[in-house]
Every structure is written in structure tokens, then in C-alpha cells.
Amino acid sequence: MKIKEAKAVLENSGQEQVIKALAGLGTDARESLIEQIGSIDFAAVARMKRLIEDGDRGQDLSGIEPAPVVKPTDEERDAARVIGERALAEGNVGVILVAGGQGTRLGFDGPKGCFPIGPITNKTLFEVHARKILALERKHGPVPFYVMTSSVNDAPTRSYFENNKYLGLNPDRVMFFEQGMYPVLDSAGHVVMDRADHIFMAPDGHGGVLKALLNTGMITDMEKRGVETLFYFQVDNGLVEIADPVFVGMHIDRSAQMSVKVCAKRDPDEGLGVTVVRDGRTAIVEYTELTDEQKNERGPAGELKLLYGSVAIHVFSRTFLKHEAEAQLPLHRAHKKVPYCNEAGETIKPSEPNAYKFEKFIFDALPDADNVLILEFKREDEFSPVKNAEGDDSPATAKRDMMLKCARWLESAGVEVKKDASGSPINRIEIDPCYAIDAEELAGKLEQGFAVSADTNLSG
Ligand code: UTP
Fold it and tell me: Is residue 205 in contact with ligand 1, taking CB distance under 6 Å?
């Protein structure tokens, strides 16, 4: 991009303050800012400005109804498992991990996937996920693994995998790709500068995965490999059952374009999006958009009417992903404190929110799907995210839930697990996914008389 073009783009977008900044820069700094301007999606900036000017009117949610949830019988699960396992064995299933977030709440120095979570081994979240994929590969066959990063953590994520021999995975089947970045805007709709020659940018949300898959050639890669069905999950959930064959099988069997796993919300105020039908389409509505009345409404048996929440575990058909990559997902805004560079070149750390950050959310693709599967799962078996440093959804609760899951597997195999008064196992337990990927496999491996008498690490 030439300076003339850059100025025209900035003028059209009402960003004259950046033209002023350009005028005060030396040659190298000016070139670098012009290059950055060339990389910014100013059509999206125009949408962001409209959102700021119009205020967040929210959507009309007056007529929403709970979406139907599938609760399969054991026979239906068995039949779906066969279909899912066949797809895995035929090499038609890939895995997408979104790991481009900033992990602000956890406050860990490094990509969240490098956070140690194994209750005994301190395996990192990436390692726990990779071991599950390795276990699937050993059982069924190759499973391509697409890992989304952002410029915030791309380099450390790649070096972590390289320095750790790809955690046992075949590097030819681990593909990293970077998501897009958006500028943040102040209340006047001006982009925020973090240096005299640089516009502050933040990842464009997990919904950015759709465009990123297309723009970085990952969809083409999937086509070349014959991958038709994609399991999608988030980096912070150590309990996730990656490419669960039952879920994958049901998605395929019903010719779904997008599938969603849901669990009952802990309480009306839990921050999960709920699955609803709105204007005849299935959608996920963020809890912040519901009125108190909608959140608390109860059915005849006293259960919450909008009971089922999505925890961002999905299956997509590749063709739907490609279709959605061309679509325009809505933007969601959040008011944040963003340090900025003032006209004197000083960095100011605001004490109050001063800027709007915009993100796309993956679940906004759902209403575009004609065929949708919403499948119930047991929260204790599959969802315990690491979001906060302490309290709910923290490393402590995630480790506890990982150990409780292992304890349940052991108990179902007839092993006694001693527990304290709160129901937590007295000894720490960890089961490597390559030792056993499910309770059944575990039961088949344990020798007669196996007992948990001390910390127990079953490694494969
Ligand atoms: P969260 O919304 O929990 O955000 O992301 P976060 O970045 O992990 O943590 P906070 O909110 O800053 O504390 C849920 C999942 O979506 C991914 C995250 O890496 C995580 O796996 N994500 C989020 C992205 O890949 N890109 C984004 O832009 C945002």
C-alpha cells in the first residue's frame, strides 16, 4: 500500500487522527504503519463504528423457545459409535482446536495450552489434548489436528510443540494457523494506537476461526486429506472427549451441518449460552442477552425452561465450515481498559474502560445450519474449563474433576477408590489417555485385584 492509498482508506473510515500520526513519523516508522493499515479490515471497522453509534440494541428474543435436545438411548449410542469409529478409521475426521485467546482471567505467562494441569504428572493442557489424539490415532488411524493461534501466542505455541517433539504426534498432521486481528475503537470510533507508529490489535474472537481456516489454506488442506467432519473444541477444557465417536457418528448419521453438545446449567446465572429456537432457526444466545425472567423461567416440573448450555464442543461438516467462512458473522462488543499512546507519545493506562473490543463468536454460525444436532452430555465427564486463577473454573476445580472422572472409571471397573468426606479421592489419580481412552478400555487393562493405595498414575 502507498501512502496516498493509506490516507484515502483512513479518510473514508473517519480515522484522520492516524493521518496526523503518519505525518509525524520518520521513514521506517511510517512505512511500517502504512503496512499495518494495509492489513486492517476497514469494512469490519465500519461495522464496528455503526455498532458504537447505534448502541447495542440486542436482538429481539421475545419469542425464543428451548431447542430440542437429543438424549440417546444406549442402543442409539452404540449404533452412533459404530458410525463415528468407521469415519475415524476411514480418515474422514479432523480436529480443530481454538487456542488464540489471551487467557486474561487466568493470568498465566504463556499460551494457555502450556498450563500444567495433570494432577500428578503436570502434563500441560496441550499435552493432555495431544495424548487423546494420539490414543485415537493408535486405535483408529490418522487424525489431522488444526490448531488456531493468534499473533499473541503463535510463536510460543509453535516452539512449544517443536521443542517437545510435537507431543508424540506426527508433525505432518499438526497444522498451525493464525486467526485474524481487529483494532479496538474508542467511543468516538477512532482506532486506538498503542505506539506512535502502531494501531493496537486484538484477536477477532473464536468465531474468527471460520475466515482463518479459509484464508490460511486449511480448508484446502482438509479437502486434500479427505477430511469431511471436524470436531471443534477449546484449549481450556482438560476433560473434553476429543472426536467422541458417538457425537461424530450422530452428526454424520443425521447429516447435520453443525452439532452442539449441551449440558444442564449449574444455575440460572451460569455464564453459558443457551440453545434456543428463534424465528424457526436454532441458535445459541449468550446469557448476558437474556432477561432475568427468561433466565429464571421454570417448566412444569420446576426445571429451568432454558436449561441447556453450550460449552463450545461442536462437530462441523467441512462444507458447512467453508460456506460459513464466506458468511458474515455478527460482531459482539465489550468495553475494556486498553492502554494507549497519547499525542505526546506517552503510554496511558486508563483506570476506566476506554475502548470497545470486537469479537466474532463461533456459535453465531448455528442459525445458518439447516440440519442441527443438539446432544446432551454429562458435564462431570466432559467439561471443566480453566478460566480463572482461583474459585470456580480454575486449575484446582479442573484437576479435581479430572481425578473424579478417573475415580469413576476405576470404580466402574470394580476398583475401590477411597474418598474423603467431601467425596474427593484421598489419593491423586491420573490416567494417561494412551493407557485408556475410556472406562471400557481401562476395565480391560486392569489386572485382577488392582487397588488404589497411593497416588496412582496409569501411563501408556
Ligand atoms: P475465552 O473466551 O475463554 O477467552 O476463550 P480466553 O482468551 O481463553 O480467556 P480470557 O477471556 O481472556 O480470560 C475460549 C476459547 O476460545 C479461544 C481461547 O483460546 C479458548 O480456547 N479463543 C478466544 C480464540 O482462539 N481466539 C479468540 O480470539 C478468543
Answer: yes
Atom of ligand 1 lying closest to residue 236 CA: 21
* DSSP string computed for 18-51: HHHHHHTS-HHHHHHHHHHHHHS-HHHHHHHHHH
Q: Cell numbers for 226, please give them.
A: 479427505
The CATH class of 65-391 is alpha beta
The pTM is what?
0.96
Cell of 424: 474427593
Beta strands of 331-447 (E only): which ranges? 332-336, 340-341, 347-348, 355-359, 372-376, 429-431
Binding site membership of 238 for ligand 1 (Cβ less than 6 Å): no
C-alpha cell at 348: 496511558
Mean pLDDT, 10 residues at a time, over the chain (460 residues)?
Answer: 94 96 94 97 96 80 93 98 98 98 94 98 98 98 98 97 98 98 97 97 98 98 98 98 98 98 95 95 94 92 95 98 96 95 92 97 98 97 97 96 98 95 94 97 92 92
Q: What residue ranges do the domains of the chain occupy?
A: 3-39, 65-391, 394-460
Q: How far apart are CA 202 and CA 184, in angstroms?
A: 7
> How many of the other CB atoms lie within 10 Å of CB of 97?
26
CB of 102 closer than 6 angstroms to any ligand 1 atom: yes
The number of CA neighbours under 13 Å toward the Cβ of 407 is 21
